Amino acid sequence: MSAVAPTMQLFFTERLAKQRQASPATVRSYRSTFVLLLRFVQGRTEKAPSTLDWEDLGVGVISAFLDHLEADRHNSARSRNTRLAAVRSLFRYAALRHPEHAQLIQQVLAIPQKRFNKTDVSFLEPDEVAALLAAPDQNRWEGRRDHALIAFAVQTGLRLSELTGANCRDIELGAGAHVRCLGKGRKERCVPLTAGTVAVLRVWLQERGGLPDDPLFPTRTGRRLSDDAVEARVKFHALAATRGAPSLAHKNLTPHVLRHTCAMTLLRAGVEVIVISLWLGHADIRSTQCYLHADLSIKERALARTTPSSSKPGRYRAPDRLLAFLESL
Fold first, then answer.
1. 238 and 285 share one domain
2. What is the pLDDT of residue 261?
3. Which of 113, 147, 259, 322 is 20 to 30 A off residue 49, Cα-Cα?
4. How many domains does the structure of the chain reveal?
5. How far is 125 from 265, CA to CA, in rounded Å?
6. How many Å apart are CA 151 and CA 156, to the nearest integer?
7. Residue 117 lies inside a defined structural domain of this protein
8. What is the pLDDT of residues 231-280, one digit of tens each?
9. Whose CA is closest to 128, among 200, 234, 279, 269?
10. How many whole angstroms separate alpha carbon 147 and alpha carbon 298?
């Protein structure tokens, strides 16, 4: 076994699990990054992952891997930067254990994040939400599960990892109905549930049964739904929902769009941005301010409160025909 393999194993068992106490979602994200990286390097070098050494993971290889993510796997710049952050974390840990490779490690750590244009967040209008909720076939068990999952996601705004990680015991449907979840940075938060969501979940939990530690939204066999499975179900129902809301055909509907929809619903209802930030579990309120830019109606209401200018329309006319000719060139 090479020097890379034991260091990577210790990175997960010592650095992430013991020192940083990383959440399961973080561990899964880092794991998938290194699986992709090792398979990429194996394809280039024809070496087994357990035999790779640090020279096989130089700055050229890591840069090529990042380009591969964008060109071949069609990852966005955000996803590329997320993978790079995981690689950097491993190399910072390796710097303490392998000072003999300090120059190589420093070169990898110097790879910059990729800049990208920030677009307005995508969210669903009320008629689109209604069409999406009506899409699952509630004559089937999967349809009733998906209907409950979508209604729950739109109202609570939980992250995808929080949706798939929710257990039956996390739901309280009595007085002060709420859901408890463990979010980014291992921060616990409590999100209230509306009467409509409580009614949907009460019916679902009666049918679902299960023990307190069982997943809230399982597969047919009782296992926890994967992130990919939830994304696939949302896209499947979005396609069917276009019959009721044709505008959905122009939106890339993902579970994160349901989270954006929750935020925009709260914002349009007049909820303060700081409250929405706490609701969504944002570490920094600046992460919530993007919703202020997404809703044009907020800006239109601000414009309606201003005094319109009294300037008269007109166009510039050159005082001389020769000057007009020259300015037209």
1. yes
2. 94
3. 113
4. 2
5. 9
6. 9
7. no
8. 999 999 999 999 999 999 988 899 999 999 999 999 888 888 899 998 99
9. 234
10. 30
By the 8 A CB rule, do 241 and 257 touch?
no
Residues 6+ apart with CB under 8 A from 98: 3, 7, 54, 105
**Do 32 and 170 reside in the same domain of the chain?**
no
Answer yes or no: is 58 within a domain.
yes
Distance CA 210, CA 171 (A): 13
- Cα–Cα distances (Å) from 193 to 152, 157, 288, in that order, read 8, 11, 21
Q: Which sequence positions are flagged as catalytic? A: 159, 184, 256, 259, 282, 291
Pair 293, 160 in one domain: yes
Q: Which CATH number is 23's domain given?
A: 1.10.150
As a whole number, mean pLDDT of residues 218-237 equals 93
- Here the tokens at position 15 are 């650095």
pLDDT band at residue 119 under the 50/70/90 scheme: low
59 & 153 share domain: no
Residue 141 falls inside a structural domain: yes
Q: What DSSP string runs through 183-232?
A: -GGG-EEEEE--HHHHHHHHHHHHHH---TTSBSSB-TTSPBPPHHHHHH
Based on the fold, state whether residues 131 and 104 are members of the same structural domain: no
Q: Report the length, in residues, of the chain.
A: 329
Residue 122 has pLDDT above 90, yes or no: no
* Whole-number percent of the chain with pLDDT over 70: 94
Domain boundary at 46, 79, 109, which?
109
Structural domain span for residue 296: 126-303
Coil, strand or helix at 179:
strand
Q: Is residue 311 part of a domain?
A: no
What six digits make up the tokens of 94? 């390796």
Distance CA 135, CA 144 (A): 10
Please report where in the chains the tokens 């993902």 appear, as a residue.
Answer: 254
How confident is the model over 166-192, as pLDDT tens digits?
999 999 999 999 999 887 767 788 999
User: Are residue 142 and residue 273 in the same domain, yes or no?
Assistant: yes
Q: What is the mean pLDDT of residues 78-97?
A: 94
Task: Work out the mean pLDDT of the chain and round it to a whole number.
Answer: 89
